[in-house]
Structure prediction request, 177 residues.
Amino acid sequence: MNRLLQVWIKLALAALGVIALLPGCGNGDSNDFRVRASTTVSVAPITKQQFLKRANAICRHAWSEVLGNYASYSRRHSSELDEKTLFAKSLRATFLPGFDFHAFDRIYDMGAPRSQKKSVESVIGALQRAIEFGQRRIRIDGLAEFATVFQDYNVKAHKYGLDDCLVDATRLLAVQP
Prediction:
């Protein structure tokens, strides 16, 4: 093989490697979507009832913080963006990372009761998936579409008893465009 062909092959392989690392294009509905954050929780010396009490309290606090930040961001940018764009940017800039930090991270850090580890991982895995999927969406056109991103999580969280952690229509009315 001549030297020039070897260089071209190396460049092509390097380019393919870079392309493989890039996030996918499209509408974000890919079935091969993978969560980036770890959703494997540690075991904590608490009961399920203690876990639920603490996690629901974490979520009540998270909702207060997230909705306050959302409103502040929306007010600051309302004169420069149309309503749809403002809604989508506000969700990405405040709601999604805020709920990730104030709810997911704190529940994750708390750990799970030994006998409930898999159940808790299933719930917070669905939450992290919804958050990351929402952050990667090309467009979020409205509240109904946004709520569907959290549908799987809401079912699991409600079934487990995390009713203050639901990302449901009642709470989302505060972010309605």
Q: What stands out?
A: The CA atoms of residues 14 and 33 lie 24 Å apart. The beta strands are 43-44, 112-113. Helices lie at 3-21, 48-77, 83-110, 117-136, 143-149, 151-160, 169-172. Residues 5-31 have pLDDT under 50 and may be disordered.
